[in-house]
Design goal:
The chain is of the alpha+beta class and 210 residues long. The protein has one domain: C8orf32 fold (Roll). It has eight helices and seven strands. It has helices spanning 11-18, 23-32, 45-51, 56-69, 120-125, 165-173, 182-186, 193-199, and strands at 75-81, 88-95, 98-102, 113-117, 140-144, 147-148, 176-178. Strands 1, 2, 3, 4, 5, 6 and 7 form a seven-stranded antiparallel sheet that branches. A hairpin with a 2-residue loop joins strand 2 and strand 3. Helix 2 (23-32) runs antiparallel to helix 4 (56-69). The termini are far apart. The mean pLDDT is 94.
Length: 210
């Protein structure tokens, strides 16, 4: 296997990514690294491997790169919310004609999805009832078309030392689908108190310096 074929990744980086040859292994690896609480980074997979931390899009980029190295399309899915909530980004994969997703999150929800969904919309909708604010308001509004990172291969996003804000911009500007009508959204029932309590469970604790 040639380094040149894989974006100039080092042998150590290649060895790590080569081991991640199934969605389960990719998700298990992401679950071992702490959550990146910084809103000022959008690190490349190389930087994530060095820093050993990632937020949702950073984790999705690493997952997509691992899929690409093993012959699959590197696809992202953007889940767009209503402010003040924040969007979530996952890496898509397909098995036996069904869609699944790898997800880096700090919460007990918005996590990995098994490949049981017939369409991307089906998969996106599986996150709808998990996406709410502390007051119970459900906030998921749109989902993107599968975003193919191969279109941006010339930018060396796998190893870039700079933040990848251009990918965030491109993903945000890509085609998105509305989940429901404004009337339906106005009639939504808030999440229950027990759901709100469960939604506050976190995996990693923020350090004071972050």
């Amino acid at each position: 296997m040639s380094n040149e074929k894989y974006f100039g990744l080092s042998e150590t980086e290649l060895t790590t990514l080569q081991k991640l040859d199934t969605p389960r292994k990719v998700q298990d690896f992401l679950d071992t690294i702490p959550f990146n609480f910084s809103i000022h980074t959008l690190m490349s997979p190389r930087r994530v491997l060095a820093a050993r931390k990632a937020h949702c899009m950073e984790g999705a980029l690493l997952a997509a790169l691992a899929f690409w190295m093993h012959g699959e399309a590197p696809l992202l899915l953007d889940l767009r919310t209503e402010a003040p909530d924040v969007d979530h980004v996952v890496a898509l994969f397909k098995r036996h004609g069904r869609w699944g997703a790898v997800s880096k999150t700090n919460h007990a929800v918005l996590r990995y999805r098994e490949p049981v969904y017939q369409t991307v919309r089906e998969l996106a909708m599986s996150y709808f009832h998990e996406y709410f604010l502390d007051n119970g308001k459900k906030t998921l509004r749109k989902f993107s078309e599968p975003f193919d990172l191969r279109r941006h291969a010339k930018h060396d996003w796998a190893v870039d030392k700079k933040n990848l804000w251009y990918l965030e911009t491109a993903l945000d500007r890509s085609p998105h689908h509305v989940i429901a009508s404004s009337q339906t959204l106005r009639e939504l029932r808030p999440a229950d108190k027990i759901e709100i309590k469960a939604g506050k469970i976190t995996e990693w604790k923020r350090k004071n310096r972050e």
